[in-house]
Amino acid sequence: MATGSFRVLLRAEIKPGMAEDFERTWLDVGTGVTGHPANLGQWLMRSDEDEHVYYILSEWVDEPSFREFEQSDQHLEHRTRLHPYRSGGAMWTMTVVHALDKPRAVTG
């Protein structure tokens, strides 16, 4: 995790009965995000409190690179394919200011 990297957190509310299709489609279109040179990875997580709520976290080298991707045809296609499964959601952006990596175990 790079200090100064830019994170995007999406909250996606998925229509009842569509979670499996949403997950499959997210995996299908995911390379459209992770294939971008400025993307450092992304993660799909399901809420433990509400089975219809998912969170998508993506990491970018910086905000301008994310904003460039956000305006691209690639991102529009990504959103278009996922939109039928969603009933709502929200987006937050943030910059990593400090990172504490877990120390690696020393083997002897």
TrEMBL record:
Database matches in PROSITE patterns: ABM
Residues in ABM domain copies: 6-97
GO terms of molecular function: monooxygenase activity
Keyword Membrane on entry: no
Keywords: Monooxygenase, Oxidoreductase
Alphabetical list of Pfam families matching this protein: ABM
Keyword DNA damage: no
Superkingdom of source: Bacteria
InterPro entries, sorted: ABM_dom, Dimeric_a/b-barrel
The name this protein goes by in its record: Antibiotic biosynthesis monooxygenase family protein
Organism annotation: Streptomyces gibsoniae
Lineage start: Bacteria, Bacillati, Actinomycetota, Actinomycetes, Kitasatosporales
